[in-house]
Design a protein that fits this description.
CATH superfamily of the domain at 2-11 and 33-50 and 106-154 and 171-271: HAD superfamily/HAD-like
Number of helices: 13
Number of strands: 8
Strand content: 15-25%
Largest sheet: 6 strands, parallel
Shape: globular
Distance between the termini: 54 Å
Radius of gyration: 21 Å
Helix content: 40-55%
Order of helices and strands: HHEHHHHHHEHEEEHEHEHEH
CATH topology of the domain at 2-11 and 33-50 and 106-154 and 171-271: Rossmann fold
Structural class: alpha/beta
Bound molecules: magnesium ion, zinc ion
CATH architecture of the domain at 2-11 and 33-50 and 106-154 and 171-271: 3-Layer(aba) Sandwich
Strand order of the largest sheet: 3-2-1-6-7-8
């Protein structure tokens, strides 16, 4: 792919351009010297201990009205959350209150250190999540890990000046039946890998995908023999994979995990990289 890309560029110029040739050659050499690996993560119940949307939904009291509940079935999760955010705004729940709830969700034990150790081991890290950009930014910034991700793929959200949180679907797709219309994580993962190769001359030797939910099955089905799919014990992804072994067969190695510590041990054993960083991170200040 890399060579073809360079050849195409050279051919399209109609002349042999030494500068470009050197550039291609150089980046190819760099690739050889520094093989890259990719680790892709779900967010809710994978990185954070809980679900960002449901934690925020609890601020709607006394309860979510039935006509809003209905939206999950009729119009999908993102449309439902849009309505939840509208209710929060109506009930004068402030931006700060919402973001405090997000910051104060615990990590899945050991996860921040796991992410840091993979980053130190030269893995590129991405998040692919059905939460939203505001929540993921808030949590990763509060835990000092926002700068270790190459990219974050999620539903775009934004607080308006009047304090209303707005959210849009990440995309609209109907080809993949394993995924919701607003988010096919497999397609996002494949597109990211292809884009890195064409734009940045980075070809990943191995890809790790870590998740817990049924929407994490699609990306794992698209992994190759060199890759590792990681399903959390006790959650939907593992349950469905085990139930449908003949229909949902992964080419990749599959491992099952409980928390950041045992996941680290299994990945370290497989890829032979360094230990967990020693330092503890400072938790954000939260109400008791
Ligand atoms: Mg999840
Ligand atoms: Zn899909």
């Amino acid at each position: 792919m890399h060579a073809r890309h360079c050849a195409y560029q050279i051919a399209s110029k109609q002349i042999f351009d030494f500068t470009h040739y050197n550039y291609c050659f150089h980046s190819k050499m760099t690739n050889l010297v520094q093989p890259k690996r990719l680790a892709a993560f779900d967010f809710d119940n994978t990185v954070v201990f809980g679900n960002t949307d449901t934690v925020v939904r609890e601020l709607v009291t006394p309860e979510v009205p039935p006509n809003v509940q209905e939206l999950v079935k009729t119009e999908g999760w993102t449309r439902y959350m849009e309505e939840i955010f509208r209710l929060l705004h109506e009930k004068k729940i402030t931006r700060e209150k919402i973001l405090e709830r997000i910051r104060c969700i615990r990590e899945v034990p050991g996860f921040v250190r796991l992410l840091k150790s993979l980053h130190q081991a030269n893995f590129d890290l991405i998040i692919i999540s059905d939460s939203n950009s505001e929540f993921i930014r808030e949590w990763t910034q509060a835990h000092n890990i926002s700068n270790i991700f190459t990219q974050i793929f999620t539903n775009p959200a934004q607080f308006l000046d009047n304090g209303l949180l707005t959210i849009k679907p990440y995309h609209h797709q109907t080809e993949c039946k394993l995924s919701a219309e607003n988010l096919c994580k497999g397609k996002i993962l494949e597109n990211f890998i292809a884009t890195r190769e064409v734009d940045d001359f980075i070809k990943y030797e191995n890809v790790v995908y870590v998740g817990d939910g049924t929407n994490d099955i699609c990306p794992v089905m698209r992994l190759s023999e060199n890759d590792v799919g990681c399903a959390r014990k006790g959650y939907g992804m593992k349950r469905i994979l085990e139930k449908n072994k003949t229909k949902l067969t992964a080419k990749s190695k599959l491992i099952y995990w409980n928390n950041g510590f045992d996941l680290h041990e299994q990945l370290q054993e497989h890829f032979k990289y360094g230990d967990l960083p020693d330092q503890r991170f400072e938790s954000p200040t939260c109400p008791v």
